[in-house]
Predict the 3D structure of the following.
Amino acid sequence: MAILPIITAPSPKLKAISGEVERVDDDVRRLLDDMLETMYAAPGIGLTAIQVGVPRRAIVIDLGREAQPAGPLFLVNPEIAWSSEELLEREEGCLSLPDQYADVIRPSEVKIGYLDYDNVRREIHADQILSTCIQHEMDHLDGILFVDRLSAVKRNIIVRKLAKARRQARYATA
Ligand SMILES: [Zn+2]
């Protein structure tokens, strides 16, 4: 396994629409393993392939030991089969937007169809933080960041903060 560099915003790659995975074979499993190690090292609770520069519809999630389901969840070619009318507002962060957090409103529950680590088609019904996390990661597959779901005012504040942090990092290493 290997820890891969995570792409941070702004980057045109993060706006790319990822392509379907044909089948979950050993190459895809290697990618999923590397993504999981990269996510644990960050640390984070979710990561998509495009965040490590691979435009494929693959997601890894691990909400920790207390969560249901416990342990890592691998979602390949996920599709929303159903989403609740009820909405939920929850604070989100993103490994591609370091140190930035904002409240995002999404459907509170979703049902997802996907291929698992063994190329088996499965369904999962998610609520609470898992629902938020899955929807956040699925957005990445279509080039959408959580800041794209905020008002223009809130989004601009975060974009300016990121640009400032990047300038300061450049001076620090110059
Ligand atoms: Zn993210």
